[in-house]
Amino acid sequence: MNKAPSFVPQERGPSDHDVRTQIVEAATEHFSHFGYEKTTVSDLAKAIGFSKAYIYKFFGSKQAIGEVICSGCLTTMMTAVGEAISDAPTASERLRRMFRALVKAGSDLFFHDRKLYDIAAAAASGPWPSVQAYEEHIKQLITEIIVEGRDSGEFERKTPLDETANAIYLVMRPYVNPLLLQHSLDLAAEAATRLSGLVLRSLAP
Amino acid sequence: MNKAPSFVPQERGPSDHDVRTQIVEAATEHFSHFGYEKTTVSDLAKAIGFSKAYIYKFFGSKQAIGEVICSGCLTTMMTAVGEAISDAPTASERLRRMFRALVKAGSDLFFHDRKLYDIAAAAASGPWPSVQAYEEHIKQLITEIIVEGRDSGEFERKTPLDETANAIYLVMRPYVNPLLLQHSLDLAAEAATRLSGLVLRSLAP
């Protein structure tokens, strides 16, 4: 359950790894300076010295390039969460660590590098497939932790599993979704503790 | 406990009710068209036909005018919440109705009239005193409901009262704060139900 998935979208056109990497790196640089929303594929082409048509051989749209950058961030975040929870001794502790790690990873990645924030915002607004996959992965992790805690007798078993998992996901969502997290940064660390406590009380058998 | 408080800030200068009302009405109209952020007190003065100095006799700043508009909205919202919970038969039901009414009042007031949204956003970003008073009032309502439920034996009494109240406030916050609610409108109604369920499970004795 702790293996972080890759959210990299399907490739298009010639699978020339180096060219793709070159485009993504240049785009990351360009987006950081001028913002994702304001940058066009033409701007990127000019900056890299490629033709627009050549870029379109590798990526179907600007969003497809943004998706690769976004996917990289999300994979890093899920790896951090996976590592944080891997050796938790109980399901309760796993849930606590998961919440804390999500808040930390989100704050670190998106807000220590404010310049990439508008890619995150665009991705969450869409929502882009990478973000949907990320949210599904978090829901899946929550479900696995609940099942583990039910099996070990730590958690109650009366409430339907999906109802419990969805409700817990809703509690975590404001600290996972960057559009929401930006308005909660100053209280996020305390919220992770307080809300974990509330969620664990709700799971008591 | 169900009396909605008034969040109207202190008046300044001559307490000529009609002139104040006239300024607030003109400002509401002006903000609706041009946005709160983009409007200056000079713009307002020109639009109403008053001198800037005359407006400053009644309001110390643009924010002071915005506060009156914002306070009016918040008072309406708290009245709606107060009415929704007044005849609830149990503390559990009162909590459920409070959550539902907060979501409904927030959605109705701020999002059916999108034009006034940027006052709400400015007020929540500040946060303005009216918003802080509103949040305190909600925390107070939550505390009263918990005490009621503890007294009647519906809720557990082990967790410190303020810890329980703060955690429940954090669960509700994304649906109360307009900066957050704007990103949760499509799932707000279902969230109110699901999260009330989770919170009530966490309160079980």
Q: Quick summary of this structure?
A:
Chains A, B: It comes from Rhodanobacter humi. Chain A is an all-alpha fold.
Report on the structure:
The structure is a homodimer of 205-residue chains. With 205 residues, the first copy, chain A, is mainly alpha-helical. The first copy, chain A, has two domains: 17-60, Homeodomain-like (Arc Repressor Mutant, subunit A), CATH 1.10.10; 65-203, Tetracycline Repressor, domain 2 (Orthogonal Bundle), CATH 1.10.357.10. Helices cover 72% and strands 0% of the residues of chain A. Chain A is elongated. Chains A and B meet through helix 8 and helix 10 of A and helix 8 and helix 10 of B. Chains A, B: This is TetR/AcrR family transcriptional regulator. Chains A, B: Keywords: DNA-binding, Transcription, Transcription regulation. Chains A, B: InterPro entries: Homeodomain-like_sf, HTH-type_TetR-like_transc_reg, HTH_TetR, Tet_transcr_reg_TetR-rel_C_sf, TetR_C_27.
Fourth-level CATH superfamily of the largest domain in chain A: Tetracycline Repressor, domain 2
Listing every helix as H and every strand as E from the N terminus to the C terminus, the arrangement of chain A reads HHHHHHHHHH
Intertermini distance of chain A? 24 Å
Largest interface: A-B, 28 and 28 residues
Contiguous runs where pLDDT drops below 50 for at least 5 residues of chain A: none
Structural descriptors:
TetR_C_27 (chains A, B), Tetracycline Repressor, domain 2, homodimer, 10 helices, 205 residues, HTH-type_TetR-like_transc_reg (chains A, B), TetR/AcrR family transcriptional regulator (chains A, B), mainly alpha, DNA-binding (chains A, B), 2 domains, Tet_transcr_reg_TetR-rel_C_sf (chains A, B), elongated, Arc Repressor Mutant, subunit A
